[in-house]
């Protein structure tokens, strides 16, 4: 009578059973990753559904190395700082939502993650005593910045159009963004 190993295969097939078990583990891992990715896409409505924080403009509410899960505008509406003050809505320890956008709508620009302060219509001053908005959009600012993005080099003179927005920040996972930044 032949002895059986832990996997149930005979001792003569040890190498063969090792590769079969390894293949099963790899397939199982890929299925789990695909399920998690599918859930994240279904939740967020965009791919990739996350960004990593690289900078200090959102301190103290978001820190360098945080991984932030975002949702598309198809799934959520943007609540500005101004609206949040009025109705008590806070996200990341301050009024209003934090959005992720491509400055000037340019896909080659690095995404910016800043708070939507208020909405301006075309022709309205972008801030008290400021120039008129060339088009409607959000005035944005980092929680650790003194200037609006529109009065700095981030999005000079251009309110953020909704079509420039990649997503609205939902929650952050501390330090996990360091891993994402290294990988990609």
Summarize the structure.
It contains three helices and eight strands, in the order αββαββββββα.
Description:
The protein has 2 domains: 11-44; 50-183, Umud Fragment, subunit A (Ribbon). Strand 3 and strand 4 (94-95) form a beta hairpin. Helix content is 25%, strand content 21%. The strands form 2 sheets. The protein has a 6-stranded antiparallel β-sheet, with helices on both faces. The N and C termini lie far apart (54 Å). It has helices spanning 14-44, 81-87, 176-183; strands at 50-52, 67-71, 90-91, 94-95, 98-101, 112-120, 137-141, 165-173. The chain has 3 helices and 8 strands. The chain is of the alpha+beta class.
Strand adjacency order, main sheet: 1-2-8-5-6-7
| Shape, principal axes of CA atoms | elongated
Number of strands: 8
Number of domains: 2
Number of helices: 3
Q: Kindly estimate the percentage of residues that lie in beta strands according to DSSP.
A: 15-25%
CATH superfamily of the largest domain: Umud Fragment, subunit A
CATH class of the largest domain: Mainly Beta
Q: Structural class of the helices, strands and pairings?
A: alpha+beta
Biggest sheet character: 6 strands, antiparallel
Helicity range: 25-40%
N-to-C SSE series? HEEHEEEEEEH
Q: Spans with pLDDT under 50 lasting ≥5 residues?
A: 5-10
Q: Which radius of gyration do the C-alpha atoms yield?
A: 23 Å
InterPro entries: LexA/Signal_pep-like_sf, Peptidase_S26, Peptidase_S26B
Subcellular location: Membrane
Protein name: S26 family signal peptidase
GO biological process, one term: signal peptide processing
């Amino acid at each position: 009578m032949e002895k059986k190993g832990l996997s149930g295969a005979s001792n003569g097939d040890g190498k063969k059973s090792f590769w079969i078990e390894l293949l099963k583990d790899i397939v199982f891992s890929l299925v789990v990753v695909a399920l998690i990715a599918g859930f994240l896409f279904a939740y967020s409505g965009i791919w990739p559904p996350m960004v990593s924080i690289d900078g200090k403009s959102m301190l103290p509410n978001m820190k360098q190395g945080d991984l932030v899960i975002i949702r598309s505008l198809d799934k959520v509406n943007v609540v500005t700082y101004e609206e949040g003050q009025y109705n008590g809505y806070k996200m990341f320890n301050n009024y209003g939502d934090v959005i992720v956008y491509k400055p000037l709508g340019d896909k080659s620009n690095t995404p910016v993650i800043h708070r939507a302060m208020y909405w301006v219509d075309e022709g309205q001053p972008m801030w008290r005593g400021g120039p008129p908005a060339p088009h409607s959009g959000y005035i944005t600012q980092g929680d650790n910045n003194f200037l609006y993005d529109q009065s700095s080099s981030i999005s000079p003179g251009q309110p953020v159009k909704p079509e420039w927005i990649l997503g609205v920040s939902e929650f952050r996972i501390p330090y996990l963004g360091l891993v994402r930044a290294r990988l990609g």
